[in-house]
């Protein structure tokens, strides 16, 4: 039985729904639920009613609502592409009903801009006892970057020592300021303090304060800033030989100037303010006035380049490799009507789901992507739209 229930109907969900719809051999039946029913109906129309056979309204902040829906649909797997706030209620519903779970971003409490795996890892024993599996962070970063790291460790090194994950969007959407995925989650992520792992401990940096100018294949040189990103937490745990692990993301000057102004005037705050007798959260209001990331696809040009630099030891000698993917915004739009950031997240989620349903990756408990054998997942990336390359190179980073 390979019936899936997808929760969320935003930019990433659009890609997951359409890619799953193209693959009836993996996904026999697709059901789609989200907070706003009309968005599910629109996606159902695009993907075809013969493939997306049911659409439902659900508030996934409430585990009991999700559990009731799961009982009605009886899926084998729930794909959570709503927001990180919903991770725990959806995991609770899966536990209650005995259904497998997959997501693309780790849990984050709504009233605190802090994300970490502790809350979800705490479900491991309960998932194991129930005989169900949760696959966490099955997007691109986290997700593919974890698998790239596992692939490098398996095939290229005896021991890995230095990891630098680099995420470049070399595209142009023609807007003065927009985020490429949910603005609230995105801005919470990049305005928090930077953090990296070195010599067995975390080191913090001021937000967007450490810069390297890196040369990205098929994009060129881009200013890249050190951020904390969730896959670092699981990768340093699962690859204890790592001496240092960092994450870098590119931002243009125009983007950073807008962000700085918005921060300075208080628009990125998550503290509620009183406005005309109502409490509003400035960042939630900002989201409402920014372009919907799903709407950026039309006319978006250029490419993303996301990859991992890994330095380690092979046969007693140190070497560095770079594993990366380039993804073209216009190609994604032509294929599924999405921009590359939604596409690079949605395709791995679909592949992760297919790996679980086909029992290629299937073990009761709560797992991160790097804990499974990477080879077949890597093959499926090539097959389903995210081809990757490996080059042996000099590390662009100083030590
Ligand atoms: P969007 O904001 O476009 O979509 C989110 C969807 O979730 C919307 O349809 C929204 O409904 C729905 N939703 C929100 N709250 C609820 C709720 N309480 N109950 C039911 N549905 C709800 O976000 P994206 O598609 O850009 O991102 C989706 C996820 O993917 C996020 O968790 C994001 O962090 C993650 N992501 C992961 C990446 C990776 O590489 N790992 C990269 C990019 C994103 P409504 O329309 O009513 O608001």
UniProtKB/TrEMBL annotation:
A Pfam family reported for this protein in Swiss-Prot or TrEMBL: Sacchrp_dh_C
Residue intervals of the Saccharopine dehydrogenase NADP binding domain: 4-135
InterPro entries to which the protein is assigned, alphabetical: NAD(P)-bd_dom_sf, Sacchrp_dh-like_C, Sacchrp_dh_NADP-bd
Domain Saccharopine dehydrogenase-like C-terminal: 139-386
Coiled coil: none
Taxonomy, superkingdom: Bacteria
Protein name: Saccharopine dehydrogenase
Protein source organism: Pseudidiomarina insulisalsae
